[in-house]
Design brief:
Layout (H helix, E strand, L loop, with lengths): L1 E7 L5 E4 L5 E4 L7 E3 L4 E3 L25 H18 L8 E5 L7 E8 L5 E7 L2 E4 L8 H14 L8 E9 L2 E7 L6 H14 L3 E4 L2 E5 L5 E3 L2 E3 L11 H14 L9 E5 L7 H4 L4 E6 L2 H14 L3 E5 L9 H4 L4 E4 L7 H8 L5 E6 L2 H13 L3 E9 L8 E7 L4
Parallel strand pairs: 6-21, 11-12, 16-17, 16-19, 17-18, 19-20
Antiparallel strand pairs: 1-2, 1-4, 2-3, 4-5, 7-8, 7-10, 8-9, 10-11, 12-13, 14-15, 20-22, 21-22
C-alpha cells in the first residue's frame, strides 16, 4: 500500500488518509510525499531540505528542520487563518509578521543526567533519551557557551544524584540559572555554586529550595520598564519575537484611546506588554504568581506608576462584567490552554475591545468563537513565528466590540 501525505498534523507530522477515511500520522513526512506501507520514502517533496543540525532528529527538540522555511512558515500562518475562519471569521487573512532567526532562543529547559561513571550529560530529551547538543542551532551562543562549564560545576554536587533539570533564562543582566535537583544541597554544594557564579560572572543561581548563590541583583528590561525576575520566570522565547508581539499588540489597539483610559492586561507576567501599553493608557496588570506580581509591582513603581499590578488567578477567578465595565481594552496573553473562563465573562460584559495573544491555535479557535457569537468583529491578525523549526506558533489578534 502506498501512502500519500495530503496535509500536516498539528505536531508537525505528515498525515495520510487511508481508504477507510482514517488518518495515519507519519513523523518527518512532508506534503505531496509518498511512502510505502513500511515507511520508506518513495516520492520526495521538493520542499524537503537538508537539516542544518547534525543531531536532527535524535535530539527531539526540533521537529521541522527538514522542511524549507517558506512553506513551513506559510503552514504556520495557515494554522492561525484556519482557527479564525473555523471560529466564524470567514474573511480572516492573518499576516506573517516575524520569523525569529537561528541562535536566538534565550531560554532553555535542559535535563541533567549523571552517568554510571559519574560524568554528567546536559541536553534535550530525544527518542533514545537525553542527548547533549554541543552546537545547538536554536539557542543563543551565551547559553551554549555556559553548558560545558555548568556540567563541570554540577558534577561534584551531592544534591545531584541521578536526574535533575536546569532552566536558563538569558536576562539583560546575563544567564540566570534555576536548578531542579533530586537531592538536598549541602553546605559544600552551596559553596561550589557560589564559586561557580563568581567565576562565570553569573548574578544568581537558584534551586527549588531557594537562592543558592546571589552575587548581585538580576535585572531585565521591557519597553518602558525594568524588573528583577524571580528564578525561572517566563520570558518570550526570543527578544525579536517579543518585539514583534509588542508591536502587533500596540497596532491592534483602538485608534482613539485617551491616555486616561484603562487597559486590563490579563496574565501579565513580568509586564512584557504592561509597560509598553502604559505609553497609550493606564494599565491594570493581573497575574497569579505572587513572586512575579511582586517583581512587576516594584518595576511599575520605579517606572512612574502608569502600571498597577494585582494578584489574581484568572482561571479560578476571572474578571467579572462589572469589573470589565471600567476597561476600554482587555489585552490577554493566556497560557497554552487559553482563557475560556475569562472569555465567557467578557462575552457577558459591556464588551471592551480585545487584543488576544495566543500560542495555541486550538484554544484561539475556541475562544474566538465565543467572541464571534457575542458580536465581535475581527481586527488585525499577526502571526509571529519565534519557535524556530517547531510546529508551535504565536498570534496576536484584535477583536472590535459590537457597535452600540
Amino acid at each position: 500500500m502506498t501512502l500519500t501525505i495530503t496535509m500536516m498534523g498539528s505536531a508537525g507530522d505528515g498525515v495520510a488518509l487511508l481508504a477507510d477515511g482514517t488518518r495515519r500520522h507519519i513523523p518527518r513526512a512532508l506534503p505531496s510525499e509518498t511512502l510505502s506501507d513500511d515507511g520508506r520514502l518513495t516520492v520526495e517533496s521538493p520542499e524537503r531540505v537538508d537539516p542544518p543540525c547534525p543531531h536532527f532528529p535524535l535530539c527531539g527538540a526540533c521537529a521541522l528542520q527538514h522542511w524549507a522555511t517558506a512553506p513551513q512558515t506559510e503552514w504556520k500562518r495557515g494554522r492561525i487563518e484556519h482557527a479564525l475562519r473555523a471560529a466564524g471569521f470567514g474573511d480572516a487573512a492573518p499576516v506573517l509578521a516575524h520569523v525569529s532567526p537561528p541562535a536566538s532562543r534565550r531560554r532553555a529547559d535542559l535535563s541533567v543526567i549523571r552517568q554510571p561513571d559519574g560524568s554528567l550529560v546536559i541536553g534535550f530529551h530525544g527518542p533514545a533519551g537525553v542527548l547533549a547538543i554541543p552546537d545547538c542551532r536554536v539557542l543563543r551562543p551565551e547559553i551554549m557557551a555556559l553548558l560545558p562549564r555548568l556540567a563541570a560545576a554540577l558534577r561534584p554536587l551531592q544534591a545531584l544524584r541521578m536526574r535533575s533539570d536546569a532552566a536558563i533564562n538569558l536576562l539583560d543582566s546575563g544567564p540566570d540559572v534555576l536548578l531542579r535537583l533530586d537531592g538536598k544541597l549541602t553546605p559544600a554544594d552551596i559553596a561550589r555554586l557560589a564559586d561557580f557564579a563568581r567565576s562565570e560572572g553569573l548574578k544568581r543561581i537558584a534551586t527549588r529550595e531557594g537562592v543558592a548563590a546571589q552575587i548581585s541583583p538580576v535585572r531585565h528590561g521591557f519597553q518602558g520598564g525594568e524588573v528583577a525576575p524571580p528564578p525561572g520566570a517566563f520570558l518570550q522565547a526570543t527578544a525579536q519575537g517579543e518585539a514583534a508581539i509588542v508591536a502587533a499588540v500596540l497596532a491592534a489597539l483602538p485608534a482613539r484611546l485617551p491616555r486616561s483610559a484603562l487597559i486590563a492586561d490579563l496574565f501579565a507576567g513580568l509586564g512584557t506588554l504592561s509597560f509598553p501599553l502604559s505609553a497609550r493608557a493606564r494599565v491594570l496588570a493581573f497575574e497569579g504568581d505572587p513572586a512575579i506580581v511582586a517583581a512587576l509591582d516594584a518595576g511599575a513603581r520605579a517606572a512612574g506608576g502608569r502600571v498597577t499590578a494585582a494578584r489574581r488567578d484568572l482561571i479560578r477567578q476571572p474578571l467579572l462584567p462589572a469589573e470589565l465595565a471600567k476597561c476600554a481594552v482587555v489585552v490577554l496573553d493566556p497560557p497554552y490552554a487559553g482563557a475560556a473562563e475569562q472569555i465567557d465573562q467578557i462575552a457577558r460584559s459591556p464588551r471592551p475591545a480585545i487584543v488576544y495573544v495566543s500560542c495555541n491555535p486550538v484554544a484561539l479557535e475556541r475562544d474566538a468563537r465565543v467572541l464571534r457569537q457575542a458580536g465581535y468583529t475581527l481586527g488585525p491578525a499577526a502571526v509571529i513565528d519565534q519557535f524556530l523549526w517547531s510546529p508551535h506558533v504565536e498570534a496576536v489578534v484584535g477583536f472590535a466590540p459590537p457597535k452600540a
